[in-house]
Amino acid sequence: MKSVKNIKNIKITKDATIKKALKVIEKGHIKIALVVDNKNKLIGTLTDGDIRRGFLKGYNINSPINSIINKRPLVAKRNDAKEKLFNSALSRKIYQIPVINKKGNVTELYIINKLLKSKTKFNKVVIMAGGKGIRLRPLTKNTPKPMLKVGGKPILQRIIKTFKDCGYKDLIICVNYKSHIIENYFGNGGKFGVNIEYVKEKKMMGTAGALSLIKEKLTEPFFIINGDLLTNLDFEKMLDFHIKHNSIATMGIKKYSINSPYGEVNLVNESISSINEKPTHKFFANAGIYVLNPECVDLVPKKFFDMTSLFKKIILKKKKTISFPLEEYWKDIGRLSDYETANKEFVKKY
How far apart are the C-alpha atoms of 251 and 55, rounded to whole Å? Predict the structure, then answer.
């Protein structure tokens, strides 16, 4: 158990915004913010997971943190038995324990060494890169969609680099359409600092079907991502969220808004009850990024099968599925306009 005494840069007050809290958490590199009052008394803690649960409740980055603070965190006093604290933290999947004195002032932070992640992680990453990209014709007439370039490099290369930077180097790329172009470019992944295996689909298998073709027995939770996405997500946060919630399957979601160009008329039978002039509809969309436990693979048939069907199957079996809201940059490159926008945004986001 490691003790961190210099905690000044991870303290924050309850009137701060979520945006400021995220900066404190990122800057501190300990994945937590300590919320204190003006007398340094501990009010509670805030983690990335607390913030994402807030997003699901409708909060945004400009919302105050007061409503999402964990006001009953596991805390310690200086002379508490370390073994008891350690076991308590492990059972509750807690990585950090604030230490307080008799007045309730926070003095330091314990970090559970066993839960500190190594740079290299052994969770597999499955990239679905077999689609034809018909909506991106003529760009994809001779090039598979994941090999289209954004900022001078293929989309797939940028996905691989983002995972590599987060410590995930064992990749499985599922290919079909013009697969030789992908295989010839990346090879075994050595020159990109990763290990790549290929699953070859003889026919289109959808966004989940290719999982049934993976010969290796997966033993750890693993990622799945569509091969036409750009994001700067720290994937470790998503895996931590999945594990902490004891989830079987976790879906990345992105808040989306559609502005209706019409005045919408609401009816009760034939009577008009109200009229909303050009309303904005807000909802969460499937972001095409997932974390699954190995047992999910057994639910995938060896045929065309998509991730939506897999999640429905898991839910019917009453297994736990959760959502992971993304506030990070995310772009699904499915249409020509998306591709053009991605290249314009690249300089700002990467």
Answer: 15
Domain that holds residue 39: 2-115
CA-to-CA separations, 264 to 256, 257, 270, in angstroms, rounded: 19, 16, 15
Q: What is the pLDDT of residue 113?
A: 60
CA distance 291 to 222: 5
At 30, which CATH number? Answer: 3.10.580.10
**Whole-number Å distance between alpha carbons of 333 and 339:** 5
Which residues have CB under 8 Å from 41's CB, separation 6+? 103, 104, 105, 106
pLDDT at position 182? 96
In the chain, which stretches have pLDDT less than 70? Answer: 1, 82, 90, 113-120, 347-350
Residue 116 has a pLDDT of: 47
Name the domain count of the chain. Answer: 2
Nearest-angstrom CA–CA distance, 267 and 340: 41
Domain boundary among 73, 95, 115: 115
Query: ∠72-78-84 over CA atoms, to 5°?
Result: 70
Closest CA to 151 of 348, 333, 347, 349: 347
* pTM, entire model: 0.80
Is-contact 14 66, C-beta < 8 A? yes
Spatial distance between the Cα atoms of 201 and 211, rounded to a whole number of angstroms: 10
Inter-residue contact 330 to 287 (CB < 8 Å): yes
pLDDT at residue 80, as a whole number: 76
Question: Which of 2, 76, 65, 57 has its CA nearest to residue 35?
Answer: 65
User: For residues 221 and 151, is the Cβ–Cβ distance under 8 A?
Assistant: no
Helix, strand, coil share of the chain (percent; to 5): 30, 30, 40
